[in-house]
Amino acid sequence: MASLKTTFAGIECINPFWLASAPPTNCGEQVMRAFDAGWGGAVWKTIGEPITNVSSRYSSVDWAGQRMMGLNNIELISDRPIEINLAEIAEVKRRYPKHVVIASLMVESRRDVWHEMVKRAEDAGSDGLELNFGCPHGMSERGMGSAVGQVPEYAQMITEWVKEVARTPVLVKLTPNITDIRVVARAAKQGGADALSAINTINSITGIDLDTFTPRPNVDGKSSHGGYCGPAVKPIALNMVQSVMADPASVLPMSAIGGIGTWRDAAEFLLVGAGTVQVCTAVMHYGYRIVEDMIDGLSQWMDEKGFASLDDFRGLSLPRVTEWKHLNLNYKIVAQIDESLCIGCDLCHIACWDGAHQCIHTDRVTGPVDGHVEVHRKPMEAVHATMSSIAVTRIPKMDPPAVSHGHYKAPLARIPRVDETECVGCNLCSLVCPVEDCITMKEVPGGLAPETWEERTAKLGIVEQC
Amino acid sequence: MGTAFTPHAGITARFPELKPALTPQAAMVEANRCLNCFDAPCTAACPTHIDVPRFIKKIATGNIAGSARSILEANVLAGSCARVCPVEVLCEGSCVMHHRAEKPIMIGRLQRYAMDNFYGRGLQIPVRERPELPLRVACIGGGPASLACAAELRQAGVQVTVFDKRDLAGGLNTYGVAEYKQRVSESLREVEAIQSMGVEILQREIGLEDFEALEQEFDAIFLGVGLGEMHRLRIPGGEAGVMDALDLIAGYKTGEILSIGRTVAVIGCGNTAIDAAVASKRLGADEVHIVYRRGPEEMSAFGFEYEHALQEGVKFLWWRQPIALEAGTLLCAATAINEAGELVVGEMRTELAAEVVVPAIGQSPLAEWLSSVKGIQFAKGRVVVDRATGATSHAKYFAGGDCVNGGREVVDAVADGKRAARGITAALGVMEVAHG
User: Fold this and answer.
1) Are residues A307 and A331 in the same domain?
2) Cα angle at A446 between A445 and A452, to 5 degrees?
3) Which residues, other chains included, contact B65 with Cβ-Cβ below 8 Å and sequence gap of 6+?
4) Chain A contacts of B96, Cβ < 8 Å?
5) What is the pTM of this model?
6) Taking CA atoms, which of A117, A349, B194, B266 is between 20 and 30 Å from A227?
7) CB A126 within 8 Å of CB A104
8) Dist CA B213 CA A313 (whole Å)
9) Residue ranges of the 4Fe-4S ferredoxin-type domain (chain A) (predicted)?
10) CATH number of the domain that A269 lies in?
């Protein structure tokens, strides 16, 4: 099996799977249970002057019967005394010396307060420090969390204060609640940060109770904006991590966070350059036990791909993200429907008509369908035909058996056809098709050499205006 | 008013629901499984063309009242149909999930969920905005075809009177559906909903002498009279201890029959025979046989009905024909198919203990009664109509339901009634009111 051992900003890790600073890392007992389950590291729930939390403090977005597509919280940093947290860190490190414990810190924005906190955390035995410049709710009102992370100058200044005394690697955790996440990443790097972690939660209101009109979570009839996380935020996090890792002025070892719940998510973040990944919502949903498959699945995939270590594939996808102007304008694909797999739901047809470019038809024609065929029965005509047809209950003996569809699963009349001369290759049909591999996109050789927008405008002498 | 009824507690206890209501959470999960097919095959397969994806997606969004209204737009007896429809051969049978080797969406149970919620909250069937018309239509028969026709006519602003000869309205929905599929009260709840649209229901039998007066009084007449008497056994000794299947079902549903003999033989193997056999079991019979003169591959009962009977402990005696009944014993002859393909009676005899014999061998058409209306054309005892409009060969008469199709499902009767109502309004020159 491939090795998942890695070194992150100088810290030895048995695997890249860390728990993010959050309720799952609230105390020593939890962290030790997590390590027993297989987690390689834990970022301790943010330590600072203890706060008082409200209840309730979580709310979620369900989608199509699935629970917790997205989770939102208005919980603050640790509500336990600093001494207890530090004593427990020491105990965990004593019992689990090979596992990584990072102390997440958030204190008043004063140099001496930060100096003292850093020293105490390191004295307790933490392997590194994560500066929480991301928390978007509550703490920001007190001039901490994202109040720091949204102002590059503050972020740089506090990073510098910490670096003045820190003996262990310093991670700066970035907030996504900013126009360009790279601006603060650059400031952190300027301030001497050893590594970054991103993203923290995204400002959100998950929903409003339509009976009481109170947004969720409900705290005695009122609510507040909270931090959004979970599977729903992964695409946003992936983009932000990629943009930081592709920026020479920002790039540092990156501990990626945001909707990671499986080894696949982890592999994707590693492919855009992450060194380790941090997980929270998935653990809040299913418990520490999910790490077993994260380890197993990632190793298995690495074996299949021939990667012996994480470094073998780290960042491989970075060069493949580019600006739009560098994309090949002459690359052409068209949709193809595998008629033997089609179940006749016709979702591609209606999606193409109403949501895209009207290239998928239900009016089957005889003969070749690769020519330009102008017989388009509009969707409503199909529906009207159905509604005016007369149906009766099929009764054995009284009615002939249903016509066989031959080697097709659906009646041929329900299997749509793609007019390839009209298909723009947008891909929408293959996204809505509920059957795997039924709609695939086929490359159509256009006979033209690759050409990008930048190349074309340069050739034509057009000056780009924006 | 034809809906006053008190259920018998003993019967209710003996016939608990076969398919209980879905819980809100289960309905939500199931509704979300629906792919929302375009021009969905389930909608095409439903005789009343309920827009299935539309009502299911409304359940998924929590718009249950809207869901029910969408259903009612297509099928005013949607509550009954949700319970009694053979969904396995209709909407659910055509669900595309079959093509991906998954269980079809539970369309029938979702429809019931929406309709139960609708009636449970005391909501009213929405009536379209239209002028009240000085037109009067009589619907003969109080079953699904007539009720559907009446409701659709009311939607067009026509004044409707339904004539029903039994104590309770609803026809087979009230008297003929196995109690574990639909309770009498659930049928009556729908009858009341249709009454509240302004349909007048009179518990009155129409005799041969009434037609002339009706033709004078009404602008059109819809015949939704169903079928007549059940076929008799016509075997020696075959009167004592014989109870036809529909009488048995109507009897226990109304609490008039609370027990049955120890041994029961049901003759015939259609869906009614199954219902009668299962009912006999539940009414306390030890041994219930279904006697059928052909083999299982030729029975007209649906496969899932047959499976259900097996689960209830009903036994099947194939290739037997009753030839005499004597003192609780049914004498049966073996049957076979000869070389010419005809069914013949063989030499072998079997004696079957049967304190009660229940023929379920079909209903005869009401041909004699109907033939008193001059100018209506018949074929094989059925009223001949134009399928799309329900028009008969007599300009004033329209027809639908079992008297036209020879005996199909409730939903077919509803579809017939609805089409006939549109045929009637078109014939009476009523402009169609645009609706969903």
Assistant:
1) no
2) 110
3) B117, B118, B121, B123
4) 343-345, 410
5) 0.90
6) A117
7) no
8) 91
9) 333-362, 414-444
10) 3.20.20.70
For residues A113 and A48, give the distance between their C-alpha atoms in angstroms, rounded to a whole number.
Answer: 10
Residues A300 and A365 in one domain: no
Euclidean distance between the first and the last CA atom of chain B, given in angstroms as a whole number:
32
Q: Active-site positions of A?
A: 135
Q: Report H helices in B3-77.
A: 9-14, 24-33, 41-45, 52-60, 64-74
Last residue of a domain, one of A320, A348, A369: A320
Domain assignment of residue A463, yes or no: no
From the list B96, B115, B116, the residue with the least C-alpha distance to B105 is B96
Q: What are phi and psi of B307, to 5 degrees?
A: -60, -40
Q: Is A432 on the interface with B (CB under 8 A)?
A: no
Comparing CA positions, the residue from B71, B36, B69 lying closest to residue B50 is B71
Tokens found for residue B100: 């991906």
Q: How far apart are CA A91 and CA A232, in angstroms?
A: 36
Mutate to test the interface with B, among A393, A414, A438 (most CBs of B within 10 A): A393
Tell me which of B22, B28, B29, B39 to substitute to probe the interface with A (most A C-beta atoms closer than 10 Å).
Answer: B39
Domain of A102 in residue numbering reads as 6-320
Q: Are B32 and A389 an interchain contact pair (Cβ–Cβ within 8 Å)?
A: no
- The amino acid present at B105, given as its one-letter code, is I
Same structural domain, A82 and A135: yes
Give yes or no for A380 touching B (CB within 8 A): no
Q: How far is CA B297 from CA A227, A400, B273, in A?
A: 64, 15, 16
Among candidate residues A134, A107, A138, the one with its CA nearest the CA of residue A226: A138
Instruction: Report d(CA A171, CA A175) in Å as an integer.
Output: 13
Tell which residue, A224, A298, A227, has the closest CA to residue A261.
A298
ipTM for the complex? 0.88
Residues A447 and A341 sit within 8 Å (Cβ to Cβ): no
Statement to judge: residues A59 and A10 lie in one domain: yes
Tokens of A48: 């600072």
In a shared domain, residues A260 and A311: yes
Tell me how far apart the alpha carbons of residues A345 and A368 are, in angstroms, rounded to a whole number.
23
